[in-house]
Fold this protein.
Amino acid sequence: MNQVASRLANTPPPPYYAVIFTNQLCDDCDGYATTADRMVQLAAKAPGYLGYESVHDDEGVGITVSYWQNSETIEAWKNNAEHMEAQRLGRDKWYRAFSVRIAKVERASQFP
Amino acid sequence: MNQVASRLANTPPPPYYAVIFTNQLCDDCDGYATTADRMVQLAAKAPGYLGYESVHDDEGVGITVSYWQNSETIEAWKNNAEHMEAQRLGRDKWYRAFSVRIAKVERASQFP
């Protein structure tokens, strides 16, 4: 798999779940990158994790979509102790605004 | 509404649908930006359209999520003649790779 392809998640056939996390970072992001990297590593080991896609632009707007087997595994990841501390820091320090949407993927297609 | 907030979609309470479009642009994007802007304008007038969030980074990776009332309005937008021509150009010219996922949003939360 080349580097480009590795930024698109290779998910199984639907149904599965997506967590769509849309966010606007604050200007002061001290500590954010380290914690974000740690959360990616930690999520990848969580039960039910299927993949992850993330893009940030130079205005500090980001969309991260993670994919999960079902809503129970999303709930378990949400309640992971280290992740809960990261969520708290996110609200207190790093995010000016964000939305989280839990969605059931019904259909999917890829190109090429 | 300030400029930051306007980049996050202001959607109604669930349920509604999301189209998660993850993509990697080709190096030659001639004509892409004009068509992409036109599609944003056109989608906003389509029946069932609820909103739109989009981020691209400097590696040419993008995630665009559009929100819709139901799967029927997504299907109608997919089959819009001008959009179909844009999809064809996307496959032929602009995208090295992409994924499209149709997902039913079951839960959503916002901060602040």
